[in-house]
Amino acid sequence: MQIIHELIARAATRFPERPALMEPTEVSGGGEADVTTLIYAMLQQCVQQFACALQKQRIEQGGRVPHASLNAMTPGGALSPCS
């Protein structure tokens, strides 16, 4: 069985510039919607930053994640890279 972060890492290695996630952006006035795209390389970076944030909070594998940590993954949220 593969874990999602392993699948993302493999895809980021093989297809770094391919779209991983796409989200339509609403356009007012009945125009055509734009699409926001996140490529695999950027998704992998987000996964790594989130993992670092969890480690900084001393959350172990299988541990519970505080709601505030999940909010960091929403638009306007912020994660700092692990050093």
Itemize the secondary structure elements and their pairings.
Blueprint: H1 4-14, E1 19-25, E2 34-39, H2 40-56, H3 67-71
Antiparallel strand pairs: 1-2
Structure, described:
The protein has 83 residues and is an alpha+beta fold. It has one domain (4-71). Strands 1-2 form a two-stranded antiparallel ribbon. The longest helix has 17 residues, at 40-56. A hairpin with an 8-residue loop joins β1 and β2 (34-39). The chain has helices spanning 4-14, 40-56, 67-71; strands at 19-25, 34-39. The radius of gyration is 15 Å and the shape is extended. It starts with a helix and ends in a 12-residue tail after the last helix. The protein contains 3 helices and 2 strands. Helices cover 40% and strands 16% of the residues. The model is unreliable at 76-83 (pLDDT under 50).
Which descriptors apply to this entry?
83 residues, alpha+beta, disordered C terminus
- Report the total helices: 3
Structural class by sheet pairing and helices: alpha+beta
Strand segment tally? 2
Please provide the ordered H/E string of secondary-structure elements: HEEHH
Largest sheet: 2 strands, antiparallel
- Oligomeric description of these chains: single chain
Helix content bin: 25-40%
Return Rg in Å.
Answer: 15 Å
Question: Can you summarize this structure?
Answer:
This protein is of the alpha+beta class and 83 residues long. Helix content is 40%, strand content 16%. The longest helix has 17 residues, at 40-56.
